[in-house]
Amino acid sequence: MIRIENLWKRFGRFEALRGLSFDVPEGSAFAMIGANGAGKTTTIKVLMNILEPTRGSAALLGVDSRRISARELAQIGYVSENQDMPSRLTVEEYTTYLRPFYPTWDRDLEASIAQQLRLPLKRKIGDLSHGMRMKMALMCALPYRPPAVDPRRAVQRSRSPGTR
After folding, report:
1. Whether the predicted pLDDT of 82 surpasses 90
2. Whole-angstrom Cα distance, residue 158 to residue 144?
3. Could you tell me the CA-to-CA distances from 88 to 45, 84, 124 in Å, in that order?
4. Cα 132 to Cα 118: distance, rounded to the nearest angstrom
5. Looking at the chain, which terminus has fewer C-beta neighbours within 10 angstroms, N or C?
6. What end-to-end distance do the CA atoms of the chain give, in Å?
7. How big is the CA angle at 62 (ends 148 and 75), to the nearest 5 degrees?
């Protein structure tokens, strides 16, 4: 499902990734843990073809990350920490906008996730806290049921015990 081979990424003189290699087989759970600046976000951005590697290769769903198409993107639930969303739209308006892009969008799952995460559907995205925007981004990444994620389990894991 994910294959990284001898991946390097340089930003000027700074090497964010140096010879990174790993495989994540289909059906497995995987977490990248490390200090700030360790290259976790850079690795994900290379996988998503947001950044091009300096050397090496990255493949996702059997496709070189530099050749990922809309077909592969429709199978990936990706949430960025700094995701830009239209602040003038409400949560409900934004999900209405997204639905047509994903033929497998499940409106019942969308409603269930919104309820579990206690998302205020009528509130403008620009008026949400950072945490609520992150919850909303998670909700938008799951209703089309990307094969790499079990949406109901992802939402359950995202809620910490003290979250309301």
Report:
1. no
2. 18
3. 27, 12, 6
4. 9
5. C
6. 34
7. 35
Q: Taking residues 68-96, what's their average pLDDT?
A: 87
Residue 39: left (phi > 0), alpha (psi -120 to 50), or beta?
A: left
Chain centroid, CA 111 distance in Å: 19
- Cβ contact 67:105 at 8 Å: no
14-24 and 55-60 as β-strands: parallel, antiparallel, unpaired? unpaired
Model confidence pLDDT, tens digit, residues 1-20: 899 999 999 999 999 999 99
For the purposes of burial, counting CB atoms within 10 Å of the CB of 47, is it exposed (0-12), middle (13-18) or buried (19 or more)? buried
